[in-house]
């Protein structure tokens, strides 16, 4: 008997196939999805579904569709797509949606990201727990699934998605750029040719050099997680070998994008956040920009310098999206290379962030390294994980070890110091880990503070 509490996470469903997530489970979740939205007073005449390149995705999506149609909902099956293509469909069509993907997780995993109409997120506190409980009740009952009464229509939305993105950032007039793109055998191999190439839309002044565009949910070349340094090594080498202007790496469901400059050096996501923020503020003066508390202090500084208001949030897309809705923010960025746009229904899209980088680079003559240096002011440690037996005890020990620090606990423990250095220590929700991020004005100070905190955490 399936235990959905093991696979329903804070923001989505994620589990191994078929022991945790299979077509029976997907069908029950599809029915529960429609039931939950209807119980909340939402009209659920039609929903939209898309899925990634994993071998299990089409079958799981079909089962979810059957469950939803058993509750009387009609289904638009968008088929293959990136997660931001599903958000586009939900926003443009005004429909609730479900995306079948496990993002960068290994091949044995799959998952479901669900949203309300207009790409509004569904998380534990906004309906996902209720969907879990309703689906569990359906599974536990052992009753035969309801016969579908709703209809299913297949609809290819790739060109509409690409055309919409091109209305948001005009790349037609930039100088010619050579771009290496590592799709990691994920959905970027499907969306990049449509958005940045000439498959369906007019050609742009871009020469795309593809890497690992073959859709393969077994990820034969490397894990599709560009935040892990080992997964961008191939891209870094290729950018230098081809003499390209920059490199782009997408994760498995292509909702995150990581950037490499012409020298093969990674551009920190915080620098991308600041760069895109200045472009959005130029279009929408005085607007609000959201950043999570692990992004660089350079982000709020640069936002303020460009006349915007920076709002700091907890880590996680549900917090970013909620704050964007509350404040009317035009843009939000995270250290994990998730980028959120008001022009994209407040949802995250790595592709649109990549287009902003291409536009910013192509509108001037200098290399990306010079451009990104304008938005990089501090030395950062990156995220460092420590396995601990007592998360709260170790957090308390760190709290007591730095009496000169200003403390806040918006998300984990943040220590701020008079010299503009800071550190954040957060407990993992799913593993016995503490995650440390440190930033300081110099590499020496960053290393000093990092090592001092780790000595307490790992004592």
Q: How would you describe this structure to a colleague?
A:
With 459 residues, this protein is α/β, with parallel strands linked by helices. The protein is built from 14 helices and 22 strands. The chain has helices at residues 23-39, 57-70, 83-93, 128-141, 158-168, 188-195, 233-242, 269-283, 298-305, 317-327, 350-362, 368-373, 391-401, 443-457; strands at 13-16, 46-51, 74-80, 97-100, 109-116, 120-121, 152-154, 177-182, 206-211, 246-250, 257-261, 266-267, 288-292, 309-313, 331-333, 339-341, 379-380, 384-387, 406-408, 413-416, 422-427, 433-440. The strands form four sheets. Strands 1, 2, 3, 4, 5, 6 and 7 form a seven-stranded mixed beta sheet that branches. Strands 17, 18, 19, 20, 21 and 22 form a six-stranded antiparallel beta sheet that branches. β10 and β11 form a beta hairpin. The radius of gyration is 22 Å and the shape is globular. The two termini are 42 Å apart. The model has no long low-confidence stretch (mean pLDDT 97).
């Amino acid at each position: 008997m399936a235990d959905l509490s093991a696979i329903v996470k804070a923001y989505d469903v994620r589990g191994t196939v078929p022991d945790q997530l299979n077509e029976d489970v997907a069908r029950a979740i599809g029915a529960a999805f429609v039931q939950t939205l209807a119980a909340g007073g939402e009209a659920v005449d039609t929903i939209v579904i898309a899925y990634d390149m994993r071998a299990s995705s089409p079958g799981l999506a079909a089962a979810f569709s059957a469950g939803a149609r058993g509750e009387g909902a009609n289904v638009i099956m968008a088929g293959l797509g990136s997660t931001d293509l599903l958000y586009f469909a939900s926003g443009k069509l005004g429909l609730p949606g479900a995306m079948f993907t496990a993002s960068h997780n290994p091949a044995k995993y799959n998952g479901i990201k669900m949203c309300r109409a207009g790409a509004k997120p569904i998380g534990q506190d906004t309906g996902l727990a209720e969907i879990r409980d309703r689906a569990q009740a359906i599974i536990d009952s052992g009753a035969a699934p309801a016969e579908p009464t709703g209809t299913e229509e297949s609809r290819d939305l790739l060109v509409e998605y690409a055309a919409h993105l091109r209305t948001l950032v005009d790349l037609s007039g930039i100088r010619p750029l050579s771009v290496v793109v590592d799709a990691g055998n994920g959905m970027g191999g499907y969306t990049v040719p449509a958005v940045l190439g000439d498959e369906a839309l007019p050609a742009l002044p871009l020469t795309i050099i593809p890497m690992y565009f073959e859709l393969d949910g077994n990820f034969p070349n490397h894990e599709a997680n560009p935040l892990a340094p080992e997964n961008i090594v191939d891209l870094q080498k290729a950018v230098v070998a081809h003499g390209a202007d920059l490199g782009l790496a997408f994760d498995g469901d292509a909702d995150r994008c990581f950037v490499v400059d012409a020298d093969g050096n990674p551009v920190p996501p915080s620098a991308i956040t600041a760069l895109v923020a200045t472009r959005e503020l130029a279009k929408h003066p005085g607007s609000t920009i959201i950043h999570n508390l692990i992004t660089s202090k350079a982000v709020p500084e640069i936002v303020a310098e460009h006349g915007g208001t920076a709002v700091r949030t907890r880590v996680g897309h549900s917090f970013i999206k909620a704050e964007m809705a509350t404040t009317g923010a035009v843009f939000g960025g995270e250290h994990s290379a998730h980028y959120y746009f008001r022009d994209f229904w407040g949802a995250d899209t790595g592709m649109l962030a990549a287009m902003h980088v291409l536009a910013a680079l192509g509108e001037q003559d200098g290399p990306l390294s010079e451009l990104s240096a304008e938005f990089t002011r501090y030395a950062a440690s990156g995220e460092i994980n420590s396995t601990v037996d007592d998360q709260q005890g170790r957090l308390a020990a760190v709290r007591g070890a730095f009496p000169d620090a200003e403390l806040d606990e918006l998300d984990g423990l943040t220590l701020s110091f008079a010299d503009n250095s800071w550190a954040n220590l957060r407990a993992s929700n799913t593993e016995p880990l503490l995650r440390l991020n440190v930033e300081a004005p110099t590499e020496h100070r960053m290393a000093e503070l990092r090592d001092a905190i780790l000595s307490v955490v790992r004592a």
